[in-house]
Automatic annotation (TrEMBL):
The keyword Disulfide bond applies. One of its GO terms (molecular function) is serine-type endopeptidase activity. The keyword Disulfide bond applies. Pfam families: Trypsin. This is Blast:Trypsin-4. It comes from the Eukaryota. Residues 26-273 form the Peptidase S1 domain.
Length: 276
């Protein structure tokens, strides 16, 4: 399994600012429109994008646990990571052009991995990043709504949207790392069906209740390298998953595996509430 950087929900809001609720123009594997996803964050290290994240309040960004692990499988320090909010084109941002006033770098003062997460595991693959200064929200920089674990209906067989600046092909010799934010429509699977599909292909992966799968039986559309930590949004554009792991990218019968955000709402509330 490589890191990539029965389902019910209601809305959990962690900020006094209304969270972003949009009906996006979902077309699988296309470039997102500028400012279409105002909750997206690019996590950068040494000036380069390596993971995604999601704004959930003026002080907190949610990402994958493995995104905060270094090459020695230890947690990085806050000063080693920067975030960029309001970003569309990485090249434009690095060259200082084209993004307008909304592309803004943020620094972090705290990194909070889930207490049961270990850099050598795919379980509990979730982390919170606390910014040094509150994010100033604009029309194009907004927090996401978060799907909680007490709710209204199953997500199985529904379609979600995954987005990021990751690679456009599993074989990096054939694809490129995206410059402009991209989005794709993926189908949310039943966990048992997902596990059965992996095992049918000789992959003995256990899909736990804190995970969910999304993709297609015939592959072709999926998250990939450097999409890790980015959001999977429901059709109402509520955050329901974090890009976590998988085998390859967009392989038939091997949908992407995401951290199921709803299972971690109590932990998110506790962390945020303890640091006010």
């Amino acid at each position: 399994m490589h890191p990539r950087f029965t389902n019910i929900f209601k809305i959990f809001v962690v900020t006094s600012q209304p969270c972003t609720v949009r009906n996006p123009k979902i077309v699988g594997g296309n470039e997102a429109e500028r400012n279409e996803m105002p909750f997206m964050v690019s996590l950068m290290r040494r000036g380069g994008h390596f993971c995604g994240g999601t704004i959930i309040s003026e002080r907190w960004i949610l990402t994958a646990g493995h995104c905060i692990c270094n090459g020695l499988q230890k947690f990085m320090k806050p000063a080693q990571i920067q975030g960029v909010v309001g970003l569309h084109s990485i090249r434009e941002y690095l060259n200082g052009i084209g993004n307008g006033p909304d592309a803004l770098r943020v620094a972090f003062k705290n990194i909070v991995p889930h207490p049961q997460y270990d850099c050598n595991s795919v379980q509990h693959d979730i982390a919170l990043l606390e910014v040094e200064r509150p994010i100033s929200f604009t029309a194009n920089v907004q927090p996401s709504c978060v799907g909680s674990d007490k709710g209204q209906r199953s997500l199985e067989q529904e379609y979600g949207t995954v987005s990021g600046w990751g690679w456009t092909h599993e074989n990096q010799a054939e694809g490129d790392r995206a410059d402009v934010l991209r989005k794709a429509t993926v189908k949310i699977w039943n966990n048992e069906d997902c596990e059965r599909s992996y095992r049918a292909l000789g992959k003995s992966n256990s899909i736990g209740e804190t995970q969910l799968c999304a993709g297609y039986e015939n592959g072709q559309i999926d998250s990939c390298w450097a999409d890790s930590g980015g959001p999977l949004m429901s059709k109402e554009h509520h955050l329901v998953g974090v890009v976590s792991t998988g085998i390859g990218c967009a392989r038939p019968g091997l949908p992407g595996i995401y951290t199921r955000v709803s299972k971690y709402v109590p932990w998110i509330q506790n962390v945020i509430g303890s640091r006010k």
